[in-house]
Design a protein that fits this description.
The protein is of the alpha/beta class. The chain is 46% helix and 11% strand. A 5-stranded parallel sheet has the order 2-3-4-1-5, with helices on both faces. It binds adenosine-5'-triphosphate. One of its GO terms (molecular function) is ATP hydrolysis activity.
Length: 270
């Protein structure tokens, strides 16, 4: 398999406006990602070293990946995407090679953002069992640490990592100069759900009887991904009813919503 498998490099098209809710979080990311890249000279002048890593944690489907892409878009940075699970499943040595290669390419393409999804698979706490699989994880983690420490000398490269299991992350990654900023990406509250529904119906013609606020109120525990699915499915139901349909009506939304069960539980949200 190709050494660059799973890595994409273009500047993503997603923007901050495509993400509903999370106003404060977007501002924090903007400061952490956009500023150092756009105003690197000002940072150097003031003797401030920009952070090298941001850890995003929170339940699945709540926009960690989308936030990373929007940050790259805002900073006009190339976007390199790596999956911890994919690295872990590669042949011996191949995962480390892909990691090193990605950092190398990111340096050449700077400004760059390296997005590391399912980071806990690679960056899990060391020690414990002595099985072979632990060694694979340890080697990947040590490669990641080496590469992140090497970023000291490169400008305009930031690692954004995402995980659903922040407690599983090895403490070595949380030392200063590595993941200096840890941000929780929560499931959407009422206002955020309303905004997310707005985002995903933007290009849709919806009938006057659709009350997005009402749907937001009725969709507690839904993640952004589930709300996106709800909008898409409502459109499909409308078409299934009548392939020449031009608008999506309230009953289409209701049909889909009744069949949907949110994956999150109350305990996970509170
Ligand atoms: P995972 O942990 O499963 O990788 P994630 O937290 O990275 O999930 P994303 O992949 O960013 O989540 O989101 C999944 C989908 O849900 C995306 O297509 C995105 O458009 C939609 N989505 C999630 N949250 C939001 C939001 N706040 N606003 C708009 N869309 C959202």
């Amino acid at each position: 398999p190709s050494i660059t498998r799973g890595v994409t490099t273009e500047v993503p098209k997603v923007s901050w406006e495509d993400i509903g809710g999370l106003k404060d979080l977007k501002k924090k990311l903007q400061q952490a990602v956009e500023w150092p890249i756009k105003h690197s000279a000002a940072f150097a002048r003031m003797g401030i070293s920009p952070i090298r890593g941001v850890l995003l944690h929170g339940p699945p489907g709540c926009s960690k990946t989308t936030l990373a892409k929007a940050a790259a878009n805002a900073a006009q940075a190339s976007f390199f995407s790596l999956s911890g699970a994919e690295l872990y499943s590669m042949y011996v040595g191949e995962g480390e090679a892909l990691l090193r290669n990605t950092f190398q390419r990111a340096r050449l393409a700077a400004p760059s953002i390296i997005f590391f999804d399912e980071a806990d698979v690679v960056a899990a706490k060391r020690g414990g069992t002595s099985s072979n699989s632990t060694t694979v994880g340890e080697r990947l983690l040590s490669t990641l640490l080496t590469e992140m420490d090497g970023l000291e000398h490169s400008k305009g490269i930031l690692v954004l990592a995402a995980t659903n299991r922040p407690h599983a992350i090895d403490a070595a990654l949380m030392r200063p100069g590595r993941f200096d900023l840890v941000l929780y990406v929560p499931p959407p509250d009422l206002e955020a759900r309303y905004e997310i529904l707005g985002v995903h119906t933007r290009k849709m013609k919806i009938s006057n009887d659709v009350d997005l606020r009402r749907i937001a109120e009725d969709s507690e525990l839904f993640t952004g991904a589930e709300l996106e699915g709800l909008c898409r499915e409502a459109g499909i139901v409308a078409l299934r009813e009548n392939i020449s349909a031009t608008v999506v009506c309230n009953h289409h939304f209701q049909t889909v919503k009744e069949a949907l069960k949110p994956a999150l539980t109350r305990a996970e949200v509170e």
